[in-house]
Every structure is written in C-alpha cells, then in structure tokens.
Design brief:
mainly alpha
Length: 391
Amino acid sequence: MRLDDLAFYTTFLPLALAIFFGMRGVAALVRAGHATVVRLSVIVLIAASLWFVAVAPAGRWMLVTAATAFALGPVIERLRLAGQRTGALALLVVAIVVAAAMFALARWELGGRAFVFIGITVICSHAIAYVIDVYRGDATAARPLESVLYLMQFPALNGGPIVRSKDFSSHHLRLNLGISLGDFTYGVRRVVIGLVKIRLVADVLGRPATVIFALPTTRLSTDAAWLGAVCFALQIYFEFSGYADLAIGLGRIFGLRYPENFRRPYVADSVREFWRRWNITSIMWLRDYLSLPIAGRDAPTLRLLLNIFLGFCIVGLWHGAGWTVVTWAAFSSAWLAVEAVGFGALLERWPRVLRHAYVLMVTLFGWLLLRAETHAHAWAFLRAMAGHGAT
C-alpha cells in the first residue's frame, strides 16, 4: 500500500481516522487524563503503522528491521549505562548490519528498479538513527511506545521525511498539544497538494519518460532525448516532494509534526545549494549518523571529497541499482568538488540566469545517469541530446 493508492483513502485512512478521533472523543467523555489520551493515541498510531507495514511490498523485511532495533535498543542502553561500551558497540554493529541486510533483501525482492518508493528505506534509516542515538546517550529506550512509533510511523514510510530519534519526542510527536481544527485543515490541504503533484503531474510526466527511455538507441532522436530527460527530472521532483507533502499533511492530522523536505531545489544557484534544498532530511541523516556530509561548508580535503562520494553512493542506492549509481555519485560529487576548490566563488559573479541554467544542466544530466539502465544507454542519450540522435 502507498500513500497515493485509492485503497489507502477508501479503507485504511477512514478507519484509522474513525478509531483515532473516536477514541479521543470517548476518552474526553469519560474524563480520562491527558496522559492517558496521549498514550492511547500513540497505541492507535502504532496499530495503524503495523497494518500499513504488514500489507506493504517486502513488509516482512521492514518488520524484521524495526523489531531488531527495538529489541536491541534497551540492551545497548543498559550496557552503555553500565560502562560496557564494547558490548554496546557490538550490538550497535549487529543492528546496523541487520538493517543493511534487510534493505538489500527488499531491494532485491522488488527488482532494484530506480525510484520505487518503499518503506524499507525510511525504516532502515530510522532503525539506524534509533540505535545510534541510544548508543550515544542522545535518546532513551525507556519509552517503548514512542520507540515503536518512531520506528514505524506510517505517514513518513513511503518517502520520508526522515527525522532524528533524539528529536522525535520533543519536536515531532505533538499529541500533548492536541489537534486543532487548524491542524486538521492544514493537513488536508497538504495531502491534496501531494496527491496533485503525484497523480496529476508526476504520473503524467512519467509516461513519456518511460516510453522514451525504453526506446532502442537507434530510434532515439535529439528532441525525444531532451523531452525524456526533462520529463524525468520534473517527475522525480514532483514525486519526491509529493510524498513529502502527503507525510507532512497526514502527520499534522494525527499529531505528528514533520519538517519540510524540499525547498524549491530547482531555483538553486549552485549545485551545493541544490543539495541543501533537495531531500533535506536524508542529507542531514547522512551527516548526523554516517558522518557523510554532502552539501556542507567545510574546507575541501581529499577525505571530505571521498565522504561526499560515498554519501552520494548511498543516496543513489536508495533509489536505483547498478553501476550507473556509482557513475552518478562520481558525477555529482565532482561538481561539488569543483565548486569547493574555487569555481563556486567564480560562480557567484555570474548573472543569476546563467547560474540557474548551470544548475539545471548539471542536475538534468545527473538524473539521466541515474535513470539510464546501463552506461551504454546513458551514453546514447547524451549523444542524442548533443545532436547525434536518430533522424
């Protein structure tokens, strides 16, 4: 099940809303304490999330990932508090390895196709963040209900945002503040915006992109190659940001506050700024939990550039498969390196329209590399776009 499926809005969401707000209404009638209402609300959200995961593609791998992190988190915390850092570190490694293995199995089961939105990406990211924060002492495993909800929060499962475990209780879980009519209407508005982006824009753009990328290279004309590349670049943005809108809207309806994940990346004036605006929470996750900064302002060093390359490899593997992911990572990190070593300062003196055109061209060719099935396919597209296509 996905957040843009008809079944979600005809079966899952109405039932979840009825139980969630019905329970809160009954609790108010019997004058249950505020803490009890919050706890019951969390339980309902956990039950809804378990249902959502259970019917999802590769749902069993997601359940194993979340269950492993949930089971090991309290043990890691006890060992850390007892001063047994070696044992805590060993269990931390086990949890991360299990998450990585479940991710690989899920990607294999689903065919490894590019940009298939599956909850395993978000659940693995949350599982790793949870055990690392517990190991560091930045989060606690002493509140099991909140831990389970953090690991499996259905509004964010299809495409993020990815939130920090240490911030979940204090910043994102806002049930203690109640859910106002303003929250509900804002949430509905964001859901509608997300559905329009996905169904009426991304899906429409995806049809010609799919047809063009499936053409034999001998039939790939210059205009078709440009059309396919542009359609895909727009498709991926509207689909990614559309799922973020759905998550933010549904979260607001159910008392979860998610951060913005996209801030108009295609209006950026540099590649570094583009990656500071694109899928913001996943870029922050790479920095905070894997020490792989992508769009920071650190002085360029060989190690930093290697870390950026590794970070792009992980981002690429979240959405695609094959050696074109490595090429895309090298391409993307190379442009960040070029800007860091001096081109960025020169770029600032360019007219705004030229800076904008530069970013659009770099990102367009980058998405082309990630979308192409093979390097030969990507090269054929680039040749066609350069004017050497079929006539």
